[in-house]
Amino acid sequence: MRLLVTGGCGFIGSNFIRYILEHYDPEFVTNVDALTYAGNISNVAGLAAQYGERYEFFHADIANADLMDELMRKHQFFAVVNFAAESHVDRSINSPQNFIHTNVVGTGVLLDAARRHGVRRFVQVSTDEVYGSLWPEGRFTEESPLDPSSPYSASKAGADLLALAFHKTFGEEVIVTRCSNNYGPYQFPEKLIPLMILNAVRERALPVYGDGLNVRDWIHVEDHCAAIEAVLLNGRPGQVYNIGADCEIKNLDLVHRILDHLGKPKELIEYVTDRLGHDRRYAIDSSKVRLELGWKPLHRIEEGLPATIDWYLSHRDWWEKLVS
Question: From the candidates 33, 61, 129, 279, which is the catalytic residue?
Fold first, then answer.
């Protein structure tokens, strides 16, 4: 069985490829990535040498229909797992067209190519940000209305709806997953947790938006990968599955945990002007994927966050090439 994993040089995509290759033999993976700012070929370093013909890399933009056709003619893929996305909210505010190109147009190209080339399954990897903001009670379910607050989340919501429409119109076995905030190895340094770690290590200011009381629901990337694998193999076509670990933390409290682990002073925190359209709280109800597919998170943030911090400390050669 061969999988086409798009965006496989990004944070979550590269972790998913490693997870699949380590846990399933003889699974074959083709990784497609345009290698934009967050697509780092170092994230998959050594995979070709370790796994031989079970892993291959194809440098391409998923919005290029000719290249996607070429790739899908080359292999008979069992499934597409679409991680490819522009994903940073601040960048979407500054350059929304880039997000529409990859997140909406690219997803449409993949869906159409997969349909025409007989790909059996299509997993659209999305985000809880499509639901907008919660405050102060409740959790997002799969039936929560979509209410995106940024060009990023709007582009992901559009891609989700397009994917589900391909299921209704063409009968394509499409499944959408929506996950809470991820943390773990190989996350691009502009994201909250690695940014705070690397700034603290270098004794630089830790920028915290607004009052720092925005709440996010955190999950270790390996738990997310395990959930996607469960959805890929056993999820019901046409369904949405929320993925979360019931781990709500205020941004400021998370920053404090990082500083405490590193033994750095809280005076490094610098409050900055709040982000435009900054959602106040996210919280995911993941009971559907737990009950239907038997998935559950295995990493508690009390152990997972320190392990993540230590990973960045021991992989300076990886992140020093990405930061100034």
Answer: 129
